[in-house]
Structures are given as C-alpha cells and as structure tokens.
Amino acid sequence: MSAIPKPIHDAAAAFDTLPGVGPRAALRYAYWLASQHKDTIKHFARSIESVANGVMHCEICGLWSSTQICSICSDSKRDIGVICVVGTSQDARVIEESGAFRGTYHVLGGLLDPIGGRLPENLTISNLVKRVFNPQKLVREVILAVDPDVSGDMTAHYISKQLHGSSVTISRLARGLQHGAQIEYADGTTISDALGNRRDLSLS
Ligand SMILES: [Zn+2]
Q: How much is the pTM?
C-alpha cells in the first residue's frame, strides 16, 4: 500500500495533467500544497475554480475573456480595421505584450492539422470569413500570425483562399520568426519585427 495519503495522491494526479509537469514534480507540488496554511490552499483552489466559472470566449474574437465581449474588442482606441489572426489566446497575449499591435484579434482555436484530425470546421475560420465579408466593410487588413511551420503554412494558405474576393490586404508574419518556431515562445522584439515585416499574401 502506498505511503502517500489519498488527498495528496489526488492533488498530484491533478498537477500531473498540467503541461510540462511530470509525475515527480506533480508530487512535489502536492506535498508543498499540503504544507501550506489551510486558507492559502482554499484560495488556491478558488482561483482555479474561477477559471471554470468565470472565463468564456469573446463573442467577437474568441479570446479568453471574463466578459462576453473582451477588453480589446470593447476598447474604442483599438483599430477594428485590422485583424490579427492567431491560433490561440496565448499567441495573442504574446503579441499584446510586444506592444506592437493596436488592432483586434481573431482566435482560430488551433491550426489546421488534417492528420491529427483538426479540420477547417474545427476552427473558427467561418467566423473570420463572416467578420471580413461583413457588409459594413470595416476590415481592411488581415494579418495571419500563425506559427511558421507546416500547420501554420496550411492554415495561412487555407484562410487566404477563403478570403479571396474580399478587398482586404492579407499578410503573414515574416522575418524574425524562424521556420518551426512557436509564437507563444517568441520575445517582444521578434514579434514587433515579424509584424513590421509581414508579407503580403493577397496576390498569391
Ligand atoms: Zn474580443
């Protein structure tokens, strides 16, 4: 029989599901948690629970938000004529932190990966098409800030085709991001550089 008390075992099993955390670290966290003051543990648990209850996708852009319309979409100082298309909310967060972008976002919910079963209908591409082809014609530019790898290439190509016939300029983040790199781990300078040197895809 294991010497690990069940509550610690259960907490470790929960930590073990976190990305980048292995079973040993998970167990270390669980023991650390057990050694904390009860109020600290309760606060920790409530913080996690609030993610389940208090976070939703913005109805316009799909970013994680605590309100139906996120703080970026509801900010009148943001340029709604430029949409930066990203795979995940995390990618948008990195671009936000670079301070180099003042438009709005569109979160795809991943990138195309037909072999892994992620098809166009699993992403929010149709919502993006609706935003771009909106009769009010508010959008003038779409920047595809997708990872420079095979999935990113496929996604960029697919979206460009879907937006064909619209009057928007379509560009893709370019220099600075090496092939195979992930936006999530890029620094602010690299993102600013890649935004500034985006490649026009409209004619391809
Ligand atoms: Zn939004």
A: 0.79
